[in-house]
Amino acid sequence: MNPETEKTMSRPETANAPKRTAELEELLIDAEADDEQVQQSHPLVRRPWLLLLGLILVALNLRPALSSMAPLLSEVSKSLGLTAAQAGLLTTLPVLCLGLFAPLAPVLARRFGAERVVLGILLTLAGGIILRSNFGEIGLFAGSVLGGASIGIIGVLLPGIVKRDFARHAGTMTGVYTMALCLGAAMAAGSTVPLSEHFDHSWAMGLGFWVIPALVAAVFWLPQIGQKHGAHNVAYRVRGLLRDPLAWQVTLYMGLQSSLAYIVFGWLPSILIGRGLTPTQAGLVLSGSVIIQLASSLAAPWLATRGKDQRLAIVVVMALTLGGLFGCLYAPIEGLWGWAILLGLGQGGTFSLALTLIVLRSRDSHVAANLSSMSQGFGYTLASMGPFAVGVVHDWTGGWNAVGWIFGIVGAGAILAGLGAGRALYVQVESEKV
């Protein structure tokens, strides 16, 4: 069969609204036909609630391995004799692995199927959590690498599964997926220290507890193994993303806003402990800030898509994020919760808009899948530099005041990238059936 090649030009969405509407209607009709065909031959697909529950449980596990470390970082560092630079590396390694291993996701999915890969990587994630909580300093770093790699692979695959199996509700499901991510992060940030205190002040037990939700998610994901998805299995090769400026602007925005997010996950509790809070109080502030993200992660994309483009929305959410960060770092401690709420509103919006931009800047699902892999692969690799830089600066200066420069530089870069990524254009690529 001859390859069918199509070229997606970078152009305003508004100028092609009628054509795009017709194309979307055609895609929806095709998707409905495919769904009916799959449902007739595979009874489990008639129960989308089972897939929905599995997706939510998997998504809940994509942040605890990252956010559970921050409230215990001081205790772990003292216990193992880590320097601030080593602690910074500990917060950086999982984020770096998010980017380094993200490109493996589509390769593994083509080879084994997305559902099997998600199940296998959930078990790998569980192994990483056990490793880092039971085998001293070597296990701590090795487990962090394994956990970050696992999260990076699953994080690339889940949006594609959402777009494939919930085509008519992709926006709503993306919101549910994002909320599950935030909820998992908040749960881990707020409860890890109390859990460690419950288990005789054992930081290893506090970190190791999060193997349980990973195993539960694997059990509920098991029914998805072996199902087929008809025409949805058609694969495409997308060329030209690495040469497209818009794709790089989306990637830079994803990476820079993620850098601030992982600085918060990795270092905010330590910063607050340095300002006089107890580890439990600092963990609760982080947890509360992340819970606030649940609201803005749904509201920001909805509001952003009501205008002609997303540039204003990006500037607003980044301004809220920077305001919250500077407030937590410099403002009087009495108003800390107000700044934490502001930070949560900003960061929930920045993350959900980063995911939304991947969809809006792509003409179809296979372009979106490849743009997702690019933006997460390169973006998270870039994001990992932020937590490491905070650790190095803290080690050099012996305090936290200087990290405000990191906040400002990264935030300004995210705004500049977002002003490019937020324009109503498509990435210019060539798509080829394989």
Automatic annotation (TrEMBL):
Keyword Transmembrane helix found: yes
Keywords: Membrane, Transmembrane, Transmembrane helix
Coiled coil (UniProt feature): none
Pfam families: MFS_1
Gene Ontology molecular function, alphabetical: transmembrane transporter activity
Domain of life, source organism: Bacteria
Family matches, as InterPro entries: CynX-like, MFS, MFS_Cyanate_Porter, MFS_trans_sf
Keyword Lyase carried by entry: no
Transmembrane segments: 49-66, 86-105, 117-135, 141-162, 174-195, 207-225, 246-268, 280-300, 312-333, 339-360, 367-390, 402-426
Record-level GO cellular component terms: membrane
PANTHER family cross-referenced by the UniProt entry: 2-NITROIMIDAZOLE TRANSPORTER, PTHR23523
NCBIfam families: CynX (TIGR00896)
Protein name: Cyanate transporter
Organism: Pseudomonas kribbensis
Record lineage: Bacteria, Pseudomonadati, Pseudomonadota, Gammaproteobacteria, Pseudomonadales
